[in-house]
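COMPLEX REQUEST
Ligand: pyridoxal-5'-phosphate
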Amino acid sequence: MLINSLPKIVTELPGPKCKLVIEKRSTAIPSAVACSAPFVIDRAEGAMVQDLDGNIFMDWVAGISVLNIGHSNKEVIKAVQDQAERYFHPQINTIHYKEYIDLAETLNNITPGSFKKRTAFFNSGAEGIENAVKIARKYKRRTEIIAFSGGFHGRTYMAMTLTSGNTYRAAFTPLAPGVHRAEFPNEYRTNSNIAKENIVKHYIDQLEYMFVDYLSPESVAAILIEPIQGENGFIAPPAGYIKQLRQICDKHGILLIADEVQTGFCRTGKMFATEYWADEGVYADILVSAKSMAAGIPLSAVTGREEIMQSVQVGEIGGTYGGNPLACASALKVIEIMQRDNFADKAIRIGEKCLPRFAGWYEKYKSIGTYRGTGAMLSLEFVKDRITKEPDPKIAADIINYCKYKGLILKNAGSYNQTVRLLMPLVTTDEQISIGLDMIEEAINKFSIK
Ligand code: PLP
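STATUS: Structure written out below.
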């Protein structure tokens, strides 16, 4: 069975059948829609992908964090098939249907916080973020939004403006108005003159200085933050930061929006990463989720405190496809399976297998500047020099490329593409995990400064 198989390369890459499709792609699709995989998928199960020529790869990108449940889960397929037999698209403003309502109720219950909530559905992470911002502005009747350096929130105009990084933004000015950027507390890249115990204060002071310097806190509708930055390389803020951020929000009547698009649905060892906030008594006012919710069918959700979600009027939010029944049926089954089979625990166990290996590699290979892991949200950041911490995107690319031709698919992250991130499906078997880690170590050993 493909689900339990191991990577196996049986042709040169790309193989003959795959080559034909890749050649066609090169003339049919804009080259900006880029892909460097040396194969074309034929079918997939769990963490494993088979190509048109019979090669088998292990997918540790998982649709960029969309397939926490794994490729082609049989129960999810059945739920979507059953739904497809009944109806595809009544449209939620036209005909009532149960799947949208049941999923909204489920998210209201499973997102952190026992206060009353409501949920609306959209099609992508970016669209979820756009709508969270619209709702926050309407509720607060304020215009300004604070986002963070290194943050990623999508590519539509508001989401792109909230996103950090010139690769995504520079060519598309003028950007959306009313967006401000605070410094994300990246402990590893904080000036070493600042003592570890002062790091939280340093970043909180910087944020509060924005209110002294140029931004009236009474004009700020919301602060938007990823609980763990995804595209920036899986960076969590230091302990205590979120509590103080929440205090700033409370002091000035600012809403706190959590972007759980990449962290949600068990990746971090909890159903939502903001459950770690809840341990400190901190809750988001609005939580945006997407990606792994519907196992690959486009769907995003904005879940917020009832009074906030009720502040928008008919016509102000929505869309033709948001909360499509096929996506909702998929999501309902995904959540049922994740709860029944304790996927949060699977993520913790994957982290426990990987982190000791990372620690050993850190001792051996000087190119590893640091490594990170919360549950199965795991990454290795590469540097040219541990003292200067100069990012090393080349070694990250070399490792990814080496692994790809051995049959392991990985993706980079970080402002300089200096980080290799691991996003294995949470159903990856122990044997597959150890084979994948062996391949990564082989690559690090080949390319790292010793
Ligand atoms: N927010 C976060 C944290 C993300 O990681 C992403 C995508 O990677 C988005 C938002 C945008 O989601 P989408 O690509 O579905 O628009």
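REMARKS: The domain at 2-72+343-447 is CATH 3.90.1150.10 (Aspartate Aminotransferase, domain 1). The chain is about 40% helix and 15% strand.
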